[in-house]
Description:
The chain is an alpha+beta fold. 44% of the residues lie in helices and 25% in strands. The strands form 5 sheets. The chain has a 6-stranded antiparallel β-sheet, with helices on both faces. The protein has a 5-stranded parallel β-sheet with strand order 18-17-10-19-20, with helices on both faces. The two termini are 17 Å apart.
Amino acid sequence: FTVRKSRAGIERLVGLIPKEAFVKVENGLEKRPLEQIKIGDIVVVKAGEQISVDGEIVSGKASVDQSSVTGEYALAELGEGDKVFGGTFNKSGVIEVKVTKLLADMTIAKMAKLVEEAEGKKAPISRVADKWASIIVPTAIALAILVGIVSYFAFPDVDVFEAIIRTITVLIVFCPCSLALATPTAIAAGLGNSAKNGVLVKSGASLEVISKCDVICFDKTGTLTKGEITVSDIAVDGIEEKEVLQYAASLELMSEHPLATAVVNKAGEITFDKVDNFETIQGVGVKGVIEGRNIQVISYGECLKLQLNNSKLNDKANEFLNQGKTVVSVIIDGEEKGIITFADTIREDAFEVVDRLNKMGKKTVMLTGDNEKSARFIAEKCGISEVKFSLLPEEKLQEIEKMQKEGLKVCMIGDGINDAPSLKLADCSIAMGALGSDIAIETADM
């Protein structure tokens, strides 16, 4: 039953692999199954669609949600020459992608394969135990039944009641009482206690293993953080914070970008202004006219490129960028008047949990697909001693394998599809129940 459940997790991961794509042909677009798509074909992906192939953008710009593969919380603003992964989502813009990998070699297909392989890499001792259990248990039952039947039929003075007693005697004597009674009782108590505290433990074995773990590995987005983009800071020059927020929120109200949603949520009860000539600049930001003033909310990188940056806000912007935050500039009539920063929210109890683990003498490690600055900033805030960043799913797997080869017992804590292979390979694993993906929950021990 347990094996079948773990297969269901793998099947769900396979279900994420796209089935078809729109291929550019001479007279327009043609929908084709992925098996028929060749390397070099041009696939067109519109806003709101899933990217079906691994490839390179040859035309257009898009905001892509790559969290299922990389774990990065912020949308990736991609353009010509950038790589994209099948199984990720195009949130805005139209792109043409040149196929660089066949279906079997796609990142999401490899992740499904990694989970299967990790399943087979479990500790040899657990495989030995499974093997012996599959021999001992049926043997004990068969022998007990045989003793009962022989007792009843071969000895005239043995009645049915006596034969049943002999059957049960063999069953009881076959295994030590402490193993038969004490261990399951202790495990049952542990499982019950965990359930009471909102932790679902799938097996007694994982309860035993977690007490022996030397290293606790954390994913970042959705595990140490909430995986929600929020406005974290506003810096201004020669204007009120409230005014900058009002201009930005009035513009962003017209956009569907996740950063826009965060600005509108931050504005709360502020009255929005009427916007004329609204325009989305793909991969850059938005602009429009409010009460005769030209307002732009654009990425800080674009602001530098256009040389609109305000020297008084430069230091602040660099400080926020070094913390791994996303920075946008608010331009009013051609002058940068404010910057708004976005960050993922750290869980309230993240520091407390890591601190307790550190005091217990456990080594804490962050394994994340996010960029270095963001990873180091969150790790520092949480008190994590070691950081590994910009990791793809197979690289997370390699890091865990490396620690296991050093003789360390590893516990992995994660939430995403990209964590599933690592959760499977680790000696013990924990998935975030409330926010975790189905595959992570299926794969983890707790």
